[in-house]
Automatic annotation (TrEMBL):
Residues making up the signal peptide according to the UniProt record: 1-21
Lineage: Eukaryota, Viridiplantae, Streptophyta, Embryophyta, Tracheophyta
Function in brief: Required for arbuscular mycorrhiza (AM) development during AM symbiosis with AM fungi (e.g. Glomeromycota intraradices).
Species of provenance: Castanea mollissima (Chinese chestnut)
Protein name: Uncharacterized protein
Domain Peptidase S8/S53 span(s) in chain numbering: 144-258, 264-546
Origin: domain of life: Eukaryota
Domain named PA: residues: 355-424
Length: 577
C-alpha cells in the first residue's frame, strides 16, 4: 500500500454559493474554468502535461484573440492539478469553454466559483472523552498522530493556539507535501502540526491574500474542529466556556486554500472524502455532494443551548436562542413590540410589507425605542440587528418562517436579540395583534448543558432523497453542526456584519460545514488505529458502529432499531425522487 494511501485523509469542507460570486455566464466575459483532462491521451511530443495544457490553450483560436490571455505567457493557464484529478484552470469565455469541451481529451469544463460556506463540547457529546482515555480509538490511534488530514477550505490562521506542535513527534517521514509561503504567511509558520500549506488563489480568491492565510474564518474553524489541540478556558465572549479540542488533536494538518473537486480521484488513491450535505433543508431533495464515494454529512444539535427568553406583557414566556453578550434590558423593563411587516417602507406587493429587515427598509418613526419582530429571509441573520439598531430600535426578535420550522441557530447579535421558531412566531404575532399595547422584555441565560433530546437533525440540514440517484441514500451520517465553538482568525468579525468591531479567538458557528469536520476527525482516528483500512471500510465503520466499535443496530433493543431503520429505508425508497 502506498504512503499516500496510508497516511492521508483528505477532507473537504467547502460548500454552496456566496450570492455575489455565483458563476457569471455572460458569453463574452472571461472567467475562471477548471478543466479535467484525460491525461493518458497526452501525445508523446509533449515533455510534460503542463506543456500539453499550454499548447491546448494556445491552439484554440480564442487564445490568439483574447488580450486577456495574450498578455500571459502561460496562455491563461492558472494552475495545473495533478493529485486528486488531472487538469488545469484557466481564464476564458463560456463560448470558448464550449469549444474546449468538444476535444476528446477533455473530460469536463466547470466554471470555477466561490462556493458558499455552509459553513466545545462535541467530542464529549460524541463519546470521545479526551486523551486520558485508556481504551477506544483515541488511544489506539494515539489521537491520530500518524494521520495527515488535508483540509480543502479557506485556509488557516496558523498562530491560533489550537495549531501548536508541542509534544508532537516528528513529521511523518513519508510526507511529501509542501509549505508554501506567501502574503503574511512565511514558510516557517508551518510546524509539526501544520505540515503543509498550499494556496490556489489566482482564480476566484483574487480578492483574498496570496497565501494560505484565512481571511474568512471558515477554514480556521473547521480545521480546529477536526484536529485542534487542547485549549484550556476557550469561549466565545464567555459563552460555551471549557476546554476546546478537535476530534483528532494529534493529527497533522495540510491546508489547501482552494475549491473541492475530484473526490472520485481521491477515493481511488485511498483518501477518504467527506463533504457537507448543504444547508438548504428542511425541503426535500436539497442534499448536495451525493456521489456514492463521498461521505456526505448532515448536521445535528448537541446537548448545549444558549437560551434567551422573550417575556410578553401578559406573562407568557417565549424561549429562543441567542449569543448576545452585551448589556441586557434593565430587569423588569418592558418595551413596545412591533412586527417589521407593519413598520416597513418597502412593499413586497400591494398589501404586504417586507418583514425581513433588510438595510434601509424600516420606518424609523414606527420602530424607535421598540423591540422589532423580523422574519428570516434574505441577508445575514445578524445584520438584521444592525438594521433595527440603525432605525432606532432597541431589541430584535428574529423569527423562522416556512419552511424553517422549529430549528434554531444562535447568533451574536449586536443589540439585545434572540431567534425564535416558526410556531413561536405564530404565537407572538397573535399576541401583537391581540392588544393595543404589545410589549415584552428580554432575558439572556448564557450557556445551558444537558439539554434533551439531542442529537436532533438541524432543520437547515439538507434533506434527501438524493435527486440524482434516489437509490443512493444521502446524507450518510449526521454529526454536531449547530452552535459549534472553534478557533477563529484575527481581523474577521464573528458575525457576517462588516461593521461588527468585535474580535475573538473562538467563534460559534452553525452549518453542515461544522458537522463535516467532526466526521473527518473520527475518520482520522479510525485511520490511525487501522492504517490498512480502505476509505470504504472507514465509511462503513462510521455509518454502522459507534465510537466503541459496537454496531449501531445491535444493543439491548437491537432488533427493534434495525427494523426501524429498514422501515425508514423502505419509506424513502418507495417515495422515489
Ligand atoms: C478572432 O479574431 C478574428 C479577427 O478579429 C475573428 O474573425 C475571429 O472570429 C476571432 N475568433 C474568436 C474565436 O473570437
Ligand atoms: C477564562 O476566560 C474568561 C473569559 O475570557 C476570563 O474572564 C477568565 O478569567 C478566564 N479564566 C481563567 C482561569 O483563565
Ligand atoms: C399590521 O397592521 C394591520 C393594519 O393596521 C393590522 O390589522 C394587523 O393586525 C397588524 N399586524 C401585526 C402583526 O401587528
Amino acid at each position: 500500500m502506498g504512503h499516500f494511501q496510508q497516511l492521508v485523509t483528505f477532507i473537504v469542507l467547502l460548500m454552496l454559493s456566496i450570492v455575489s460570486c455565483k458563476p457569471n455566464l455572460q458569453l463574452n466575459t472571461h472567467q475562471t474554468f477548471i478543466v479535467r483532462v484525460q491525461n493518458n491521451l497526452k501525445p508523446n511530443r509533449y515533455a510534460n502535461h503542463k506543456t500539453w495544457y499550454k499548447s491546448t490553450l494556445k491552439s484554440l483560436s480564442f487564445s490568439i484573440n483574447s488580450s486577456h490571455t495574450r498578455t500571459q505567457h502561460n496562455h491563461g493557464l492558472l494552475h495545473v492539478y495533478n493529485t486528486v484529478f488531472h487538469g488545469f484552470s484557466a481564464r476564458f469565455t463560456p463560448q470558448q469553454a464550449e469549444e474546449l469541451t468538444n476535444r476528446p481529451e477533455i473530460l469536463l469544463v466547470l466554471p470555477d466559483r466561490l462556493l458558499q460556506l455552509q459553513t466545545t463540547r462535541t467530542p464529549q457529546f460524541m463519546g470521545l472523552t479526551g486523551t486520558k482515555d485508556t481504551h477506544g480509538i483515541i488511544k489506539e490511534s494515539d489521537s491520530g498522530s500518524n494521520v495527515i488530514i488535508g483540509v480543502l477550505d479557506t485556509g488557516i490562521w496558523p498562530e491560533r493556539v489550537s495549531f501548536h506542535d508541542h509534544d508532537l513527534g516528528p513529521v511523518p517521514s513519508h510526507w511529501k507535501g509542501k509549505c508554501d509561503g506567501g502574503d503574511n504567511f512565511p514558510e516557517n509558520l508551518c510546524n509539526k502540526k501544520l505540515i503543509g500549506a498550499r494556496y490556489y488563489s489566482t482564480g476566484f480568491y483574487e480578492r483574498q491574500q496570496g497565501s494560505a492565510r484565512d481571511t474568512v474564518g471558515h477554514g480556521t474553524h473547521t480545521t480546529s474542529t477536526i484536529a485542534g489541540r487542547h485549549v484550556a478556558n476557550a469561549s466565545f465572549l464567555g459563552l460555551a466556556q471549557g476546554v476546546a479540542n478537535g476530534i483528532a488533536p494529534k493529527s497533522r494538518i495540510a491546508v489547501y486554500k482552494m475549491i473541492a473537486i475530484g473526490a472520485f480521484g481521491a477515493m481511488e488513491k485511498g483518501v477518504l472524502f467527506s463533504a457537507s450535505g448543504g444547508n438548504d433543508g428542511p425541503t426535500d431533495s436539497t442534499i448536495s455532494n451525493v456521489a456514492p464515494w463521498i461521505t456526505t454529512v448532515g448536521a445535528s444539535t448537541i446537548d448545549r443551548r444558549f437560551p434567551a427568553d422573550l417575556v410578553l406583557g401578559d406573562g407568557r414566556v417565549i424561549t429562543g436562542s441567542s449569543l448576545y453578550t452585551g448589556h441586557g434590558l434593565p430587569e423588569g423593563k418592558y418595551l413596545p413590540l412591533i412586527y417589521a411587516g407593519n413598520a416597513s417602507i418597502s412593499k413586497i406587493d400591494d398589501d404586504e410589507d417586507d418583514a425581513t429587515c433588510l438595510p434601509g427598509t424600516l420606518n424609523k418613526d414606527l420602530v424607535r425605542g421598540k423591540i422589532v419582530l423580523c422574519d428570516r429571509g434574505d441577508g445575514p441573520r445578524a445584520e438584521k440587528a444592525v438594521v433595527v439598531r440603525d432605525a432606532g430600535g432597541v431589541g430584535l426578535v428574529l423569527a423562522n418562517v416556512e419552511p424553517m420550522g422549529e430549528g434554531l441557530v444562535a447568533d451574536a447579535f449586536l443589540i439585545p436579540g434572540l431567534a425564535i421558531t416558526q410556531s413561536k412566531r405564530t404565537t407572538l404575532l397573535q399576541y401583537i395583534k391581540s392588544t393595543n399595547n404589545p410589549k415584552a422584555t428580554l432575558i439572556f441565560k448564557g450557556t445551558q448543558l444537558g439539554v434533551k433530546p439531542a442529537p436532533v437533525v438541524a432543520s437547515f440540514s439538507s434533506r434527501g432523497p438524493n435527486s440524482i440517484s434516489p437509490s443512493v441514500l444521502k446524507p450518510d451520517i449526521i454529526a454536531p453542526g449547530v452552535d459549534i465553538l472553534a478557533a477563529w482568525p484575527d481581523g474577521v468579525p464573528p458575525t457576517e456584519v462588516a461593521t461588527d468591531k468585535r474580535r475573538t479567538e473562538f467563534n460559534i458557528v452553525s452549518g453542515t460545514s461544522m458537522s463535516c469536520p467532526h466526521v473527518s476527525g473520527v475518520a482520522a482516528l479510525l485511520k490511525g488505529a487501522h492504517p490498512d483500512w480502505s476509505p470504504a471500510m472507514i465509511k462503513s465503520a462510521l455509518m454502522t458502529t459507534d465510537l466503541h466499535g459496537r454496531s449501531r443496530w445491535q444493543d439491548s433493543t437491537g432488533r427493534e432499531r434495525l427494523q426501524r431503520v429498514q422501515r425508514l429505508w423502505f419509506w424513502r425508497w418507495t417515495r422515489g425522487p
